[in-house]
Specification:
This protein is an alpha/beta fold and 548 residues long. The chain has three domains: 298 residues, 3-Layer(bba) Sandwich (FAD/NAD(P)-binding domain); 106 residues, Flavocytochrome C3, Chain A, domain 1 (Alpha-Beta Complex), CATH 3.90.700; 95 residues, Fumarate reductase/succinate dehydrogenase flavoprotein-like, C-terminal domain (Methane Monooxygenase Hydroxylase, Chain G, domain 1). The protein has 16 helices and 21 strands. Strands 1, 2, 6, 7, 8, 9 and 16 form a seven-stranded mixed sheet that branches. The chain has a five-stranded mixed sheet with strand order 17-15-10-20-21, covered by helices on one side. Helix 1 links the parallel strand 1 and strand 2. The chain is globular and about 70 Å long. It starts with a strand and ends with a strand. The model has no long low-confidence stretch (mean pLDDT 93). The protein binds flavin-adenine dinucleotide. The site of flavin-adenine dinucleotide (FAD) has 45 residues, from helix 1, helix 2, helix 5, strand 7 and helix 6. Flavin-adenine dinucleotide binds next to helix 1, helix 2, helix 5, strand 7 and helix 6.
């Protein structure tokens, strides 16, 4: 019999939340950070617009709190939002000390930090880096800090596929995780078991559950599925934020066109060339994301179906009206991507459509990253503290990763957890999938993504959700055919994780018979505070509602 490797702390995920947590943990023990692909491949890396933070003192912090609560449509957990906005400035200052170079008025490090405005923010408070590459700069500075720490080890292209629990007098406790190679060509793919005093799930969101998403391929909700499997509670899974403006070109990924474009004055126009947002919200293009996304969907649906790009983002007036703004310089990454497809912000209408972007729900945690299972912690997009309520305020999630990543580390360090101890590795050799089986799993994933878009997307109702649940049941049984034979591969595991997350979204969306924030029910279009000013909580597939 062979025994598992052992570390003090295992961090699953190397986005903003995982890296920030690892840096604190490493002052007190050996940390292993694993990431499914290379270090930079995360939602964090792709974040464009910026990080929201109140740097002007108490009044500014109070305004940030107000905006966060207003965007969350009656469901923000106030204590979590207070933590976010009040600890945010310190976390961002620390990040700047670690080398994050946010854009400044002039090139001197002491130059005033530039701030932009995004939807539903009452004033400009969004810091950005290299114009529209904020996430990459945050990821870079945290990665360098972590890599310089002698007690942090990284394992890239390594994915967690199971959490191992042990029973003790106080119930069950997570003590280890099984890891496989995430390199698709790896064969045979023997799991490696790593025990740890505490495990942090910082594995990000699950945008890949929908056919249209701004999220990279790694965002398959693995951590959420792993937590659910060991009986952890999930919360608010019905609230998926759809970003209103992803590039809509056939055959081109749904590249995000940051809200900062509208913050800098971009208009939305329908196929008739009309600015239509005045029909939907007084804040026009800077209305909350859910409102803008639904407005675009409705304008798109009312247009001639033969028109493939019925809604456009229009920035052509901005350079003329605002002397001194150079759109190519302000948005270099977006401009480069558009140019590669023959489009320019200065001269063209840019076709847009909504795409799945951010999961407000996730693994239920307290304000210190504790899940409902001992030894298991979660932070960042994988977690749900209730800080975003039913709808996240733009640019609050990078800040969430920093603040709650640091807090989860504090809890992992201060909770009285037994040391990692020797446990046996799994004796079973995995059975590899052949090429034909892998192709079938890809088909299953595509079917799930399309079904989720059609049945549990921007506009939902009981009939579509029930249809989604029935497709989901068929998908689960197709996957069980492979898992039942002890087969293992990266894509099979991701398909199972996506199916698990999809099931939770469908069940919670069906149970919430009202409309609130990102969750819109055609058959229950009105918000119902009396019944539903509550968070949905799911455990072992059963949904209930709770007030926090
Ligand atoms: C295109 C885009 C633009 C955005 N723009 C902004 C913005 O301007 N401002 C803002 O605040 N937010 C923005 N967001 C949202 C924000 O980037 C994310 O919510 C945030 O970065 C999530 O950080 P995280 O650390 O929780 O997860 P991530 O950054 O997604 O990191 C997850 C990590 O977990 C790893 N992982 C996943 N599964 C496994 C597994 N099974 N085993 C091992 N590792 C695993 C991944 O490889 C990755 O390293 C944007 C998101 C996208 C997609």
């Amino acid at each position: 019999m062979s025994f598992a490797e052992s570390v003090d702390y295992l961090v699953i995920g190397a986005g903003v939340a995982g890296l920030r947590a690892a840096i604190s943990l490493a002052d007190h023990g050996q940390v292993l950070v694993i990431t499914k692909e290379s270090l930079g491949e995360s939602n964090t890396h792709y974040a464009q617009g910026g990080i929201a933070v109140a740097l002007e003192g108490r009044e500014d912090v109070a305004l940030h709190l107000e905006d966060t609560i207003a965007a969350g449509d009656g469901l923000v957990h106030r204590a979590a939002a207070e933590v976010l906005v009040s600890e945010g400035p310190e976390r961002v200052a620390e990040l700047i000390e670690w080398g994050a170079a946010f854009d400044r008025e002039d090139d001197r490090p002491s130059g005033r930090l530039l701030r932009t405005r995004e939807a539903a923010h009452s004033h400009p408070r969004i810091l950005h880096a290299n114009g529209d590459a904020t996430g990459a700069e945050i990821s870079r500075s945290l990665s360098v800090t972590a890599q310089n720490h002698p007690r942090i080890k990284f394992a890239e292209w390594t994915m967690a596929t199971a959490l191992i629990v042990e029973e003790d007098a106080e119930g069950h406790r997570v003590v280890a995780a099984d890891l496989i190679s995430a390199d698709l060509s790896a064969s045979p793919n023997h799991p490696r078991r790593v025990t740890a005093r505490a495990i942090l799930l910082a594995s990000g969101g699950a945008g890949q559950v929908y056919s249209d998403t701004t999220n990279p391929a790694v965002a398959t909700g693995d951590g959420i599925a792993l937590a659910a499997q060991v009986g952890a509670e999930l919360a608010d899974m019905e609230f998926y934020q759809f970003h209103p403006t992803a590039l809509s070109l056939p055959g081109v990924p749904r590249f995000l066109l940051s809200e900062a474009l509208r913050g800098e004055g971009a208009y939305l126009r329908n196929h008739l060339g009309e600015r239509f947002m005045e029909r939907y919200h007084p804040q026009l293009e800077l209305a909350p994301r859910d409102v803008v996304a639904r407005a675009i969907a409705r304008e798109g649906m009312s247009a001639d179906p033969a028109l493939s790009f019925p809604v456009y983002l229009d920035m052509r007036h901005v350079s003329k009206e605002r002397k001194g703004i150079d759109l190519t310089q302000r948005f270099p990454g977006i401009s480069r991507f558009l140019a590669a497809h023959g489009l320019s912000l200065q001269h063209d209408l840019i076709p847009v459509r909504p795409a799945a972007h951010y999961l407000m729900g996730g693994i239920r945690t307290d304000l210190n990253g504790r899940t409902t299972v001992k030894g298991l912690y979660a932070a960042g997009e994988a977690a749900c503290t209730g800080v975003h309520g039913a709808n996240r305020l733009a640019s609050n999630s990078l800040l969430e990763g920093l603040v709650f990543g640091a807090r989860a580390a504090e809890a992992m360090l201060s909770d009285r957890l037994p040391e990692a101890h020797a446990i046996a590795t799994s004796a079973e050799a995995p059975k590899q999938m052949d090429a034909n089986e892998e192709a079938q799993v890809e088909e299953i994933i595509t079917r799930l993504q399309r079904s989720m878009w059609a049945t549990a997307g921007l506009l939902r109702q009981e009939s579509t959700l029930r249809e989604g649940i029935s497709t989901h049941a068929e998908i689960e049984s197709s996957l069980a055919y492979y898992t039942g034979q002890g087969k293992s591969s990266r894509r099979l595991f991701e398909a199972c994780a996506l199916a698990s997350v999809a099931g939770s979204i469908l069940r919670a969306a069906l149970a919430r018979t009202e409309s609130r924030g990102a969750h819109f029910r055609n058959d229950h279009p009105v918000r119902d505070d009396e019944k539903f000013r509550k968070h949905s909580v799911e455990r072992n597939g059963q949904v209930r509602f709770e007030q926090w």
